[in-house]
Amino acid sequence: MKQELTYRCEICNTVYNNKEICEKCEKNHHMPRDIESCRYRPITCNQAGYPDRITVVFDNGELITYKRG
Predict the structure, then answer these.
(1) Among 36, 50, 62, 69, who pairs with 55 as Cys (CB 3.0-4.6 Å)?
(2) Which domain holds residue 10?
């Protein structure tokens, strides 16, 4: 029987055979720090109540806006 050793990125759950590549993957992910702003539509346009756009502040200070599809 052959034993195999793998490593899993704790952020995206990708499995790697190489520890260094897995560590690089984990360090590459930027984590959300805060929500800068949200844009909502009135109930006549969006009865679900979820925002159309959210601007997120990440751990490196970068602001990224996500749009609902």
Answers:
(1) 36
(2) 1-29
